């Protein structure tokens, strides 16, 4: 199973930095793992924690939240709020005995095209170690 | 030490007399208190304006038919009450009210908040099983000794916040006068002092903290460890969540009674979350089977992300669950750990903002910050 296992990662990328960086990665023809499905959001803080939970329960093997570096937020303070929400999610997953390693928060600046590849590859490797999300097979959403 | 009034009546009687005094002296236009209504004297909250009606009131009855914090928020959601209301609340109800105030759902301006050191409440089922009266002597006995009373809600057993925060007046019950037949009202604010003025009793200085309170706090902490590490809710994992929430009926009683869930229309009941027929089709393309209706875990975990940071652990949700899901245990456990991250105690400090409404620039730097050198 693990040899053939290709993770499915849901990525929430902020429009101003991380999505632009992913664009740059494409324009620069840098190669990265084709495991991430990117959803563009106007700000990482637009991601309600329950969206991450929904992705996880829907069977996503990993969920990646990407926003501007702290201090660089297009809306000034959005990513600080994202950080707090992510901390909430992490502690919730931990307490419930769910895999916190499947969740990742990354700051990717607009000029960091290479970083997109590295972040995605890193998470993909980590998730491959964990194996498929058990929620994929579970009879529940 | 703080100012106090010692009254030569047992707490329940003294409090009823005091509420009547407030109405008669027009210090309060109405009183919100637990009452016993109907011919089987079912406990329910009542808003009372006539002192005579207070005869059936049971302000200290250890039962919670609704979270009174939520009730007060419903009364004051549009603004301060036009006339002063005195309310008797359990500490967790008061904490819920404070959280609702922070969520802009309540107004405390014209409220006199009376609370007490709480020994916990019995599950509502006791109302149907022969009544609460037989259990009261043992309960009061445990309270006086600073012990965890038998038969109370699981989250009450594990509650360490039984000394009220933000109360104008606190009635001492834990380690209290016991059978001596007196009671002590502690004065915590000028509003409380004003309300007590002219009420018959002896002005004293008293200290709420006592050996019994310390003892109870330690015992509750032990119970909390037991509840959160040894029950089926301890780190359940996905399999555990499936067995816990697999029996959920989606009746939404938990969110209906939850004091923190104030939304008129819950997001999880909105069209967005409605399982449209094509969702089944999409799901079954990569699953061998699916639960119908789906989304029970998604609902509970989603609701958790929305309100758990303010969860006061009152236990209403577990109590109303028709299929005995330990919702409160799970939510208060997650809430506690999340609150630890932000060093927050829901309902404790009126001036402290909700953790998710504020941020610090220099915090949580371990999250998302690993820069990759290229």
What can be said about this structure in brief?
The complex is a heterodimer of chains A (141) and B (374). With 141 residues, chain A is an alpha/beta fold.
Describe this protein's structure.
The complex is a heterodimer of chains A (141) and B (374). The model of chain A has no long low-confidence stretch (mean pLDDT 92). Chain A contains four helices and four strands; from the N terminus they run E-H-E-H-E-H-E-H. The radius of gyration of chain A is 15 Å and the shape is globular. In chain A, 55% of the residues are buried. In chain A, strand 1 (9-14), helix 1 and strand 2 (36-41) form a beta-alpha-beta unit. Chain A has 141 residues and is of the alpha/beta class. Chain B folds into two domains: 2-227, no CATH class; 235-341, no CATH class. Chain B has an eight-stranded mixed beta sheet with strand order 3-2-4-5-6-7-1-8, with helices on one face. Chain B is globular and about 75 Å long. The N and C termini of chain B lie far apart (62 Å). At the A-B interface, helix 2, helix 3, strand 4 and helix 4 of A face helix 8, helix 11 and helix 13 of B.
Low-confidence stretches of chain A: none
Q: Main sheet of chain B: which strands, in order across?
A: 3-2-4-5-6-7-1-8
- Count of individual helical segments of chain B: 13
- Mean pLDDT, all residues of chain B: 91
Q: What is the oligomeric state here? A: heterodimer
The largest β sheet of chain A comes out as:
4 strands, parallel
Order of helices and strands of chain A, N to C? EHEHEHEH
Helical fraction of chain A:
25-40%
Q: Which range does the strand content of chain B fall in? A: 5-15%
Helix content of chain B: 25-40%
The secondary-structure class of chain B comes to: alpha/beta
Separation of termini of chain A? 23 Å
Structural class of chain A: alpha/beta
CATH top-level class of chain A: Alpha Beta
Instruction: Please state the overall shape of chain A, judged from the principal axes of the Cα atoms.
Output: globular
Distance between the termini of chain B: 62 Å
What percentage of the residues of chain A does DSSP assign to strands (E)? 15-25%
């Amino acid at each position: 199973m693990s040899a053939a296992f290709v993770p499915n990662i849901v990525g929430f990328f902020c429009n101003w930095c991380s999505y632009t960086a992913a664009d740059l990665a494409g324009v620069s023809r840098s190669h990265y793992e084709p495991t991430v499905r990117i959803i563009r959001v106007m700000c990482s803080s637009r991601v309600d924690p329950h969206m991450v939970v929904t992705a996880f329960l829907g069977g996503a093997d990993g969920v990646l939240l990407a926003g501007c570096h702290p201090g660089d937020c297009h809306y000034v303070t959005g990513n600080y709020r994202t950080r707090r929400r992510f901390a909430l999610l992490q502690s919730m997953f931990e307490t419930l005995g769910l895999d916190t390693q499947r969740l990742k928060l990354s700051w990717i600046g607009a000029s960091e095209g290479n970083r997109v590849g590295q972040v995605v590859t890193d998470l993909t490797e980590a998730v491959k170690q964990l194996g498929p999300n058990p929620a994929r097979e579970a009879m529940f959403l | 030490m703080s100012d106090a009034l010692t009254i030569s009546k047992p707490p329940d009687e003294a409090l009823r007399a005091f509420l009547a005094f407030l109405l008669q002296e027009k210090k309060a236009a109405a009183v919100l208190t637990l009452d016993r209504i109907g011919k089987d004297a079912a406990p329910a909250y009542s808003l009372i304006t006539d002192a005579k009606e207070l005869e059936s009131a049971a302000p200290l009855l250890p039962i919670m038919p609704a979270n009174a914090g939520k009730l007060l928020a419903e009364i004051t959601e549009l603004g301060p009450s036009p006339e002063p209301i005195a309310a008797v609340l359990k500490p967790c109800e008061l904490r819920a009210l404070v959280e609702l105030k922070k969520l802009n759902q309540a107004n405390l301006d014209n409220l006199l908040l009376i609370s007490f050191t709480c020994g916990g409440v019995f599950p509502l089922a006791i109302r149907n099983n022969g009544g609460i009266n037989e259990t009261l002597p043992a309960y009061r006995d445990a309270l006086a000794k600073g012990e965890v009373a038998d038969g109370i809600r699981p989250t009450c057993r594990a509650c360490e916040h039984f000394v009220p925060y933000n109360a104008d007046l606190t009635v001492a019950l834990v380690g209290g006068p016991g059978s001596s037949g007196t009671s002590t009202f502690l004065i915590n604010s000028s509003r409380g002092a004003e309300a007590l003025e002219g009420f018959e009793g002896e002005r004293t200085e008293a200290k709420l903290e006592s050996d019994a309170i310390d003892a109870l706090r330690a015992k509750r902490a032990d119970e909390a460890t037991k509840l959160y590490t040894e029950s089926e809710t301890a780190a359940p994992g996905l399999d555990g969540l499936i067995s816990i929430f697999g029996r959920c009926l989606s009746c939404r009683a938990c969110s209906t009674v939850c004091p923190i869930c104030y939304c008129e229309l819950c997001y999880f009941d909105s069209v967005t979350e409605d399982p449209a027929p094509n969702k089944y089709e999409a799901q079954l393309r990569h699953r061998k089977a699916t639960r119908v209706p789906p989304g029970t875990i998604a609902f509970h975990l989603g609701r958790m992300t929305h309100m758990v940071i303010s969860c006061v652990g009152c236990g209403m949700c577990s109590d109303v669950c028709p299929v005995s899901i330990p919702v409160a245990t799970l939510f208060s456990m997650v809430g506690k750990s999340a609150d630890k991250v932000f060093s927050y105690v829901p309902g404790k400090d009126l001036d402290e903002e909700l953790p998710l409404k504020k941020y610090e620039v220099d915090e949580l730097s371990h999250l998302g910050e690993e820069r990759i050198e290229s």
